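Tokens in:
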């Protein structure tokens, strides 16, 4: 990884927000490109499925997946951080840090049980603390991404 290019911090932050169970994200350290692939595309590359079986729009991603799988030079770094990003924990930390005791109690009750995320988003709007929440959450995600990049010697551009 001697040709490391800088990676756009905002691209990485956006990827954290968008990561779902069936996606994988990689960074091309030669170009700085952030690549997100679906499980199906990775599986097609691993199974060496003929590209003709797939629609045109998906072929380019499968070709990238093949490059990632065959990467012996360490050009691609796995940036699939869904295990490191726990929005529920961030919600709890936000609640604990909130200055208003009554809001803390209401928000804490809101995140108990099934449907916690939806109720939390509704409640922060009702309480007028939605901007505080999104600023707090973005700060936590930014810290996670910056820390990960430092740990993996990925240079970022703000």
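Residues out:
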């Amino acid at each position: 990884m001697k040709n490391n290019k800088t990676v756009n911090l905002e691209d990485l932050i956006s990827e954290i927000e968008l990561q779902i169970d069936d996606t994988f994200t990689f960074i091309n350290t030669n170009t700085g490109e952030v690549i997100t692939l679906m499980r199906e595309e990775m599986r097609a590359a691993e199974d060496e499925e003929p590209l003709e079986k797939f629609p045109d729009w998906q072929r380019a991603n499968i070709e990238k997946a093949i490059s990632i799988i065959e990467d012996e030079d360490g050009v691609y770094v796995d940036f699939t951080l869904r295990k490191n990003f726990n929005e529920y924990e961030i919600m709890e930390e936000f609640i604990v840090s909130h200055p208003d005791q009554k809001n803390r109690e209401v928000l804490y009750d809101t995140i108990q049980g099934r449907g916690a995320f939806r109720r939390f988003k509704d409640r922060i709007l009702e309480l007028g603390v939605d901007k505080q929440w999104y600023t707090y959450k973005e700060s936590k995600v930014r810290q996670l991404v910056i820390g990960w990049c430092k740990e993996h010697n990925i240079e970022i551009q703000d």
